[in-house]
Write a structure and sequence with these properties.
By secondary structure, the protein is of the alpha+beta class. It is built from 12 helices and 16 strands. The two termini are 40 Å apart.
Length: 439
């Protein structure tokens, strides 16, 4: 046979292998290792470890820098090409057979809240690393390049993903977090370049898809004994400062029927907020989390109260509906108590961020194929995925939080639960690589 003939046969065999490899890989892929994943969680937890068993690995701290260095060393040891963008996001690339194809992006964050736990964020990064390990173990090369991402400063305001979206406001750069560093100085400290922050923005045709795995941070999966949460979207958040004006007067000499007590009005409004959120159909939540009475003396009827109102739901229309009901209740309370109640919307809220329905189906199919129980659910907490929905088709996988505990040293997700999440993640990646988004 001529050389040209052999070359043609080789081309045909390569094409056929490209067709059948995804199915073969899914069948032959080893299961994720709970021990390996928990080992990496424990290794990362040493950076910022506190006496309560949790971590103080806040963004831009020395512990954050050290934890990132550990992750980078692991990524490089896995044979990945690592870079840090101007926003200090870490990217680790595994090449595919088609280097110019749009990569599949997946990952989460490693920074923590002060006094936080070891699983919020790191679970998603460790699961992404595990997915690469499984592909390497199967000697499976995807068609598309794969990129693992570790977002910078998620807990302090989704800084890394906002920069990728091009929505990091210049005014935010001066904000100082618990590390004592500003976002500008902190970004530079952990490897970014704030003077070139615009270069961190990516276009909507950069990535084929994005997947974030995360602990649920609630108790639904744990209570229902389910393996996987398929996230419908990240809820929108509406925030308001509420001011109630009454009339401060002597607490001992003012008759009960002659008072304009701002705190009584605030108490009634708090109860009304709770009642409205409970009685309205849907999964909305509404919270009064801060309240302060003035002048704050034991023997003075409060003349003014300042309080907060937060409403969350997956649909903006529902947030608006709950707020309208609260505003109506406030008007009735104000009239009855002879006080005034005003609302000021705070411009730090976030709009609802539904995940891509195709990505949900891909994640559900992976869970079904693996025999893992699952359900669809919203995310009540914010995540980098809420920015990524504006950049690429986005999906999100939840794994159970034991007891629904998060942002606490007692936060825990079992190694077995993390491993099941990693299995779903890697099978979803293979499906996307095989063209599932186009089907």
């Amino acid at each position: 046979m001529t050389f040209a003939g052999l070359r043609n046969i080789a081309v045909i065999l390569t094409f056929v292998a490209g067709i059948f490899q995804p199915a073969m890989a899914a069948d032959n892929l080893p299961k994720a290792s709970p021990d390996r994943m928990e080992g990496r969680i424990k290794a990362l937890s040493q950076f910022g470890k506190n006496n309560d068993g949790g971590v103080d690995r806040v963004a831009y701290s020395d512990a954050d820098l050290q934890g990132r260095a550990y992750i980078i060393s692991e990524l490089e040891a896995m044979g990945l090409s690592v870079r840090i963008d101007a926003a200090a996001n870490i990217f680790a690339r595994r090449e595919g057979r088609e280097p110019s194809a749009k990569p599949i992006l997946f990952g989460s964050h490693t920074d923590s809240v002060p006094g936080g736990g070891n699983y919020d964020g790191p679970t998603g990064v460790i699961a992404a690393m595990e997915a690469i390990d499984l592909l390497n173990a199967a000697n499976f090369q995807t068609n598309r390049p794969l990129e693992l991402v570790v977002f910078s400063n998620e807990e302090g305001g989704l800084v890394g993903s906002l920069a990728m979206r091009g929505h990091l406001q210049p005014s935010a750069l001066a904000v100082v977090n618990a590390s004592g560093r500003s976002i500008a100085d902190g970004t530079n400290f952990i490897g970014g370049n704030i003077n070139d922050i615009a270069s961190a923005q990516v276009s909507t045709d950069t990535y084929e898809a994005f997947i974030e795995l995360h602990i649920e941070q609630g108790g639904i999966l744990y209570e229902e004994k389910l393996d996987i949460g398929v996230v419908e979207g990240i809820v929108g958040i509406g925030w308001w400062d509420v001011t109630i004006e009454g009339y401060a007067n002597h607490g001992g000499t003012t008759a009960m029927n002659n008072r304009r007590d701002a705190l009584v009005s605030a108490a009634e409004l708090t109860l009304a907020v709770n009642r409205i959120a409970l009685e309205m159909d849907g999964r909305q939540v509404a919270t009064v989390g801060r309240i302060q009475a003035f002048p704050g003396a034991p023997n003075v009827i409060p003349g003014r109260v300042e309080m907060s109102l937060e409403i969350r739901d997956l649909k903006q229309a529902k947030i608006d509906q709950v707020y309208a009901a609260v505003e109506k209740a406030a008007a009735e309370i104000a009239a009855r108590t002879q006080t005034s109640i005003s609302f000021k919307e705070i411009n730090v809220a976030s709009e609802p961020a539904p995940t891509d329905i195709r990505m949900r189906r891909i994640i559900e199919a992976a869970a079904l194929d693996l025999g893992y129980s699952h359900r669809t659910m919203p995310s009540g907490a914010g995540h980098d995925a809420q920015d990524m929905v504006h950049i690429a088709p986005t999906g999100m996988i939840f794994v159970p939080s034991v007891g629904g505990v998060s942002h606490s040293p007692n936060e825990f997700t079992t190694p077995g639960a993390m491993a099941k999440g990693a299995d779903v993640l890697v099978h979803s990646i293979i499906a996307i690589d095989a063209g599932a988004l186009k089907k």
